[in-house]
Amino acid sequence: MHEKIKRYKKEIDGFTTEIAEEVDQFRIRFLSKKGLIPSLFADFKSVPPEQRREMGRILNELKGSAQKKLNELRESIESNKVSEKKAIDLTLPTDFSSLGTRHPISIVGNEIIEIFSRIGFTVSEGPEIEDDWHNFSALNFPEEHPARDMQDTFFIEKDPDVSLRTHTSSVQIRVMEETKPPMRALFPGRVFRNEAISARAHCIFHQVEGLYVDKNVSFADLKQTLLYFAKEMFGEETGIRLRPSYFPFTEPSAEMDISCNICGGKGCNICKYTGWVEILGCGMVDPNVFENCDIDSKKQTGFAFGMGVERIAMLKYQVNDIRLYFENDVRFLKQFRSAL
Ligand code: DAH
Q1: Which residue owns the Cα nearest ligand 1 atom 12?
Q2: Bridge partners, 162 (sequence order)
Q3: Separation of 255 CA from ligand 1 center, angstroms?
Q4: Is the Cα dihedral 214, 216, 219, 225 positive or negative?
Q5: CA distances from 154 to 128, 229, 270, 326 (A)
Q6: Potential cystine with 130: which of 77, 165, 175, 183 (Cβ 3.0-4.6 Å)?
Q7: If you average pLDDT over residues 97-115, what whole number do you get?
Q8: In angstroms, rounded to a whole number, what is the distance separating the alpha carbons of residues 159 and 264?
Q9: Ordered DSSP codes for 241-278
């Protein structure tokens, strides 16, 4: 009997497994009703009385260690199951939903640049804080012009006037002062106006300005360039219409409408039932502007145009409230995806 106990003890102490079935086999072998340990207890009757005390202790010890081993093995299998659940499966596809997207204003701004770059326009930028000369005077704004009024302009300093630029036309002046014709460039950027915020207006918005200066640039060149742009931006079926207008820095000046891309010209509340929507201002560069930049207005002619990016984006995406572009609610922003 001593022999058996020794063997079993060795087997129990040395036993190990991670497999649930083998743990159960261990239990059946040693601890079940007909298992090895209960049968040792059955043999206990034949132990001589003087050895019973000692044998009882050894047997109980053996049973205790078998029970302990069983508990340990069961626990270890349980905790393996839990950590399996927590484990990361590196072969699963990742969740792309948290990937960022470009802001719709960047998407549309880049698209405008891309369309004009295909016909040779380059890109330049100017400062957002501007002096009176570049924002107004050199652009032929008369001294008392209402656009200089406190209502429209965010002034930073008085005498000499420094303000946040009210349009990207100021970059025309900076570029014409530094480079000589021919030039064909776009000036994208943020502009600032002291206006009440509403669904249609914001105090910060984005513009893309265009300038083309060379010998013999004509109004027909302007018109064809803008027609090309409108078709690329809004679709081949898009038509344009130029209405006479006034800007101090262009003569003649015009505002350009595109045929309403929402109702196809039939009339809807976006085009106010006219079939046309205004998208930009344009014109032939005023000779005074050339002279202000030391460019000979007898030799050079040119056209300029300026458009609001938010306005184009509102028409393109049919979003009627400009404020959505500034609130940056991800539920709004994540709807826009683009390769640009
Ligand atoms: N600067 C004008 C504005 O902010 C837009 C504009 C009109 C730009 C006519 C031009 C132009 O270059 O020729 O409203």
Answers
A1: 305
A2: 131, 157
A3: 9
A4: negative
A5: 11, 32, 30, 19
A6: 165
A7: 90
A8: 50
A9: EEEEEEETTEEEEEEEEEE-TTTTTS--TTTTTSSEEE
Q: Which CATH superfamily is domain 104-339 in?
A: Bira Bifunctional Protein; Domain 2 (3.30.930.10)
What are the residues whose beta carbons fall under 8 Å from the beta carbon of 293, sequence distance 6 or more? 138, 173, 176, 177
Question: Measured in angstroms, how far is the CA atom of residue 262 from the centroid of ligand 1?
Answer: 25
> pLDDT-based confidence at 288, cuts 50/70/90?
very high
pLDDT of residue 84: 67
Residue 122, strand partner residues: 185
Q: Of ligand 1's atoms, which has the minimum distance to the CA of residue 207? A: 4
* Digit-coded pLDDT (tens) for 69-80: 999 999 988 887
Please choose, from the candidates 116, 160, 120, 115, the residue with its C-alpha nearest in 3D space to the C-alpha of residue 136. Answer: 160
pLDDT range class, residue 262, cuts 50, 70, 90: confident
Judge if pTM exceeds 0.85.
Answer: no
Domain ranges of the chain: 2-86, 104-339
Is the C-alpha dihedral spanning 18, 24, 28, 32 positive or negative?
A: positive
Q: Which of 228, 205, 198, 128 is nearest to 170 (CA)?
A: 128
pLDDT at 261: 82
Q: Which of 257, 288, 305 to mutate to test the pocket of ligand 1 (most atoms within 8 A of CB)?
A: 305
Q: Is 153 in the pocket of ligand 1 (CB under 6 A)?
A: no
| C-beta of residue 183 within 8 angstroms of C-beta of residue 211 | yes
Q: Which amino acid is at 145?
A: H
How many other C-beta atoms lie within 10 A of the C-beta of residue 256?
A: 24
The predicted model gives 227-245 an average pLDDT of 96
Atom 4 in ligand 1: residue holding the nearest Cα: 167
102 within 8 A of 138, measured Cβ to Cβ: no
